[in-house]
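Structure in, sequence out. Go:
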């Protein structure tokens, strides 16, 4: 029997709760204790907790501490931190995994280890090497980060008629170079109008600034005046309110919504990821829009730069650092359960992925492990992957860190007890 570990259950390929061979699922839902130590600006977090539970607990203890993890409150810290984990503060503080300072883990022999007893190799591997590979993480200890009492958020939607293409093109030059307090991501989708002749592309510029509006406006005026940001577009709020804002809750909603583990909208979807090192020309962007007219899809561009450029690509297994301008997540959605429908949409996103080839990272074509994608290499559904097979996707997710991950895996888990379709292989 295989062992599958489930934290928040948000795995993109369902690897925490689906397998073609009989398996036992270890569900961590009850390991949800979070202890925030304000004096030490740290927290121990049970790995069954969600991001929302973490944010809410921190905010109850302090108005000026936060944590740089993902946007969706229902995502679990078990899988999320195991694969890196990024959110709207990554330009200032890096990934969630960059801020882990200790962990408690059960190894294959049933021993409970901490940073000291597991040693630096294993402690390195679990901070980004992907879940269900090295052991079962019971708790993370993280360093909390400073947030100002007031942050500023804005969302500006631009259609093609409002120069969306030019603005997205320009963003590629400024988004990754702004002051690290400023994060502007872009969600590009096809507007879903009932009239099939009136399809529109909308680029939604979503932003948080770790400071007040009066400091943000001149930065925008100087670096990105074309976006036309006005004072009335901006809202000042506390950091915890901004986590609700990014999760799509209306202003004034109780913070308790962060504690819900129910994903508000559940639809079928398939996602893929890319990293961009050179700005995509306007003509290249227009090709994406053309494909968008064929299916209900979204792409999200998340800027790098700032702190992400300063951290060495081998500091933790997540290798996508300096040189990357931004990360792309491609997504396609549908509602019907039939296989033929799924196949049609999945084929469409594979076409989009193929279209993107000239514009994104090459040798390897990099991918983000938390957006697991079983398309990008050969997977053995029985859970055994040879080193050579695994290396195909291994270097996409981990680049030069893959060999060290295999070394650690072989040392700590030679029998491949913790495994899934894309877990790190053991050489024995
Ligand atoms: C709606 C949504 C929003 C998202 N937003 C973001 C975002 O803003 N930023 C971002 O970086 N990513 C984001 N993601 C991706 C997310 O980081 C991954 O899906 C992540 O792996 C989810 O972790 P989980 O614990 O919820 O999932 P699970 O399915 O429980 O786990 C994912 C993987 O990790 C393993 N695992 C889980 N817990 C443990 C543990 N304690 N020890 C060892 N292995 C474990 C599982 O076996 C599985 O292989 C999002 C995903 C979704 C569905
Ligand atoms: C935090 O520090 C203050 C002042 O130094 C001290 O009085 C308090 O006991 C500390 N609290 C904890 C939980 O350590
Ligand atoms: C679009 O850009 C052109 C110049 O490049 C400018 O003249 C025009 O005002 C812009 N349109 C909008 C809606 O901003
Ligand atoms: C898009 O439109 C279709 C048909 O009107 C509808 O079924 C679907 O739910 C809509 N999707 C979104 C995200 O609103």
């Amino acid at each position: 029997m295989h062992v599958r570990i489930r934290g928040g259950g948000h795995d993109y390929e369902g690897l925490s709760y689906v397998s073609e061979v009989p398996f036992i699922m270890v569900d961590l839902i009850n390991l949800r204790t979070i202890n925030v130590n304000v004096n030490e600006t740290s927290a121990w977090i049970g790995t069954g907790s969600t991001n929302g539970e973490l944010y809410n607990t921190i905010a109850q203890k302090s108005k000026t501490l936060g944590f740089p993890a993902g946007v969706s409150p229902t995502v679990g810290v078990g899988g999320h931190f195991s694969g890196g984990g990024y959110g709207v503060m990554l330009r200032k503080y890096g990934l969630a995994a960059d801020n882990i300072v200790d962990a408690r883990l059960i190894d294959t022999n049933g021993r409970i280890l901490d940073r000291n007893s597991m040693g630096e190799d294993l402690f390195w591997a679990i901070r980004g090497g992907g879940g269900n590979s090295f052991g079962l993480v019971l708790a993370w200890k993280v360093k909390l980060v400073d947030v100002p009492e007031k942050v500023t958020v804005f969302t500006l939607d631009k259609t093609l008629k409002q120069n969306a293409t030019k603005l997205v093109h320009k963003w590629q030059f400024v988004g990754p170079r702004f002051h690290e307090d400023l994060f502007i991501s872009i969600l590009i989708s096809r507007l879903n109008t009932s009239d099939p002749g009136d399809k529109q592309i909308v680029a939604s510029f979503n932003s948080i600034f770790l400071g007040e509006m009066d400091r943000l406006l001149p930065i925008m005026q100087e670096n990105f005046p074309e976006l036309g940001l006005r004072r009335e577009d901006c809202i000042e709020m506390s950091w915890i309110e901004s986590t609700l804002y990014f999760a799509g809750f209306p202003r004034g909603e109780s913070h308790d919504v962060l504690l819900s583990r129910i994903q508000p909208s559940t639809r079928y979807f398939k996602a893929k990821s890319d990293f961009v090192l050179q700005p995509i020309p306007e003509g290249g962007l227009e090709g994406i829009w053309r494909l968008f007219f064929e299916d209900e899809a979204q792409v999200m561009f998340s800027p790098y730069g700032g702190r992400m450029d300063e951290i060495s690509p081998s500091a933790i297994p997540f290798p996508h650092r300096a040189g990357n301008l931004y990360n792309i997540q491609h997504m396609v959605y549908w509602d019907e359960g039939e296989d033929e429908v799924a196949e049609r949409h999945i084929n469409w996103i594979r076409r989009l992925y193929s279209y993107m080839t000239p514009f994104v990272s090459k040798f390897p074509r990099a991918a983000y492990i938390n957006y697991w994608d079983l398309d990008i290499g050969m997977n053995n559904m029985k859970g055994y992957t040879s080193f050579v097979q695994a290396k195909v996707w291994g270097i996409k997710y981990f680049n030069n860190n893959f060999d060290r991950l295999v070394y650690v895996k072989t040392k700590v888990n030679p029998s491949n007890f913790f495994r899934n379709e894309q877990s790190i292989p053991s050489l024995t």
